[in-house]
Amino acid sequence: MILKDQYLRMTDLANQPARNAKTYTTKSGQTRTVTAKAATRGITGFSAKHIYHLINEGKFPKPIKIGRASLWRLSDINSWLGSHVQPSDDDATTKNEV
User: Fold this and answer.
1) Which helix (H) or strand (E) holds 33?
2) Residue 26 has what pLDDT?
3) Residues in the chain where the model's pLDDT stays below 70
4) 49: closest CA among 14, 11, 12?
5) Distance CA 70, CA 7 (A)
6) For residue 34, how many other CB atoms are within 10 A of its CB?
7) What is the pLDDT of residues 23-37, one digit of tens each?
8) N or C: which end of the chain has fewer CB within 10 A?
9) Taking a C-beta distance cutoff of 8 angstroms, is the pair 73, 61 a contact?
10) What pLDDT was estimated at residue 94?
């Protein structure tokens, strides 16, 4: 099988807040620990909630559903990011000089 494109999950796209370790006891008396997780910054810089809001408005690429997983093509995300980049003052100066 040859993959022609890479696929991203929501955890790759959206910012993820830090999560502290948590220990709890089950009804049967077992002690369980949920590990800590450091905060991460996604490709878009948006929260997952905001990304889904943009999808509903038609302003962000829709995910591809594979089973229960929602995946986005990296090429679609790069195209979307490229269409939302504002030219800097340096770009305008360079174009005028050419």
Assistant:
1) strand 31-34
2) 92
3) 1-4, 88-98
4) 14
5) 10
6) 11
7) 999 999 999 998 888
8) N
9) yes
10) 52
Give the contacts of 26 (CB within 8 A, at least 6 positions apart): 32
How far is 34 from 24, CA to CA, in rounded Å?
Answer: 8
CA distance 14 to 39: 11
* Amino acid code (one letter) for 81: L
| Token pair listed for 38 | 């450091």
Angle at 39 between CA 73 and CA 62, to 5 degrees: 20
pLDDT at 5: 78
CB 54 within 8 A of CB 45: no
Question: Phi and psi of 86, rounded to 5°?
Answer: -90, 135
Q: How far does CA 45 lie from the centroid of its chain?
A: 8
Among residues 23, 19, 3, 8, the alpha carbon closest in space to that of 63 is found at 8
Written as six digits, the tokens of 56 are: 């509903």
